[in-house]
Amino acid sequence: MASQTDGRIYSAQLGPLERRGEYSGAPDDRWAFTTHTTPLNYAAAASLAAASRVLHGFDDALAARCLETAAAVWRDEHNHSPIVFRSFNTTGGELEDEEVTAAVELAIATRGNSLYTNRLRSLLPVIERHFAGLGWLAARALPYMDPTFRDALERALAGFEKQQRGALAGNPFGVPIATGTWGGAAEAAGFAVHAYFLHQAFPRIVGVEDTLRAFDYVLGRHPVSNISYVSTVGTRSKLIAYGNNRADFSFIPGGMIPGVVIIQPDFPELKEGWPFLWYENEYVVDAASTFILAAKAAESVAR
Question: Is the separation of the CB atoms in 18 and 36 below 8 Å?
Fold first, then answer.
């Protein structure tokens, strides 16, 4: 971190307080400032387990290290009481939600190891309560779960779909629209992805329309304008955005902005020519990666 270094190259030839030109004796070049929070560790374990599957066949040694580390994190966190504290968005999500995510990814990566499927089964009440965020994840683990789990998930989905239809009727676009202080492009792209996996698991309940509507929303079918939220993707796209070259009033190809903000009670805004409103125009890496997955999902259902 820039605020935790003297900005000079470490030299073992100098004393701790000595400086010589671009060098100093402060051994801060490779310091890492970390914290221990159980939800964040579960999130890391989930990411490593997922990475192990992607890396398999490309870098088998690294894939094995990823899975071994994820399993070690899981074991460690189940050997002590959870450590939970909140610090904005840097300490992970809700404890049980993150554990569900880790259990799903580890169950898939290990092809149904009972250590993870049994825990996932016991976390079913959590999935049912937070179905909007966890239902699609749990559906991905169904090939390794028993029929009882599948039946419970299907019942939860049927109830959730009724509630969701009512919520989506509140706008003409048929997708969730964020009403806070941050645009909802990533939320819409995530909705496309969630609907895709639920459709794969339960095609009689969830069709392909949700995925396609949400994908279209990101590409221009939204309030205020018909501009695509993804720079250089679409007929007309966002080309003045809040990236690391924002002072140039320029863009990064493939970057995705948050998009339209609903100023309460009901005024939608998207300033296209002014990049410095970060809550409308800032590129975020996870949003762009969500769009890529949404694009693949849309391509799949369109076929």
Answer: no
Summarised one tens digit per residue, pLDDT across range 129-160 is 999 999 999 999 999 999 999 999 999 999 99
Q: What pLDDT, on the 0 to 100 scale, is given for residue 3?
A: 63
Euclidean distance between CA atoms 260 and 29, whole angstroms: 41
Strand partners, 267: 263
Q: Are 292 and 215 in contact (CB under 8 A)?
A: no
pLDDT at 89: 72
Q: The whole model's pTM is what?
A: 0.87
